[in-house]
Amino acid sequence: MQRSASRAVNQIVRVPATTLTSDAAKAGLNNPEAPIGSFIAVGSSGVGKTYSAECLAEDLFDDADALTVFDMSEFMEKHTVARLIGAPPGYAGYGEGGMLTNAVRRRPYQVILLDEVEKA
What we know:
By secondary structure, the chain is mainly alpha-helical. The chain has helices at residues 2-7, 14-26, 49-61, 81-85, 99-106; strands at 67-71, 111-115. It contains 5 helices and 2 strands.
């Protein structure tokens, strides 16, 4: 996590929290049946929330492509959640999964960023 600490400016809270989580995961101290971590980043536009997720993906998995970003402003309407998690039983497309569920199936170990979640 040292790499992201040197790249991120004014990320005082992010660095210790993600560093501890990253170090614990790399040492095998996390629960393999649970997510490595769950974080909420808040702040004004341009302070580095998305960049922090990019750094975390690279630090945890040594791969910048280990980040999947969902623009949650696309899910403002109640019915659009099916695009994210899949259609409920009895509806067309049930069993096909949604964007989020399919992304997790394709790559179970990754960082998922729900960007603009306040707009969903």
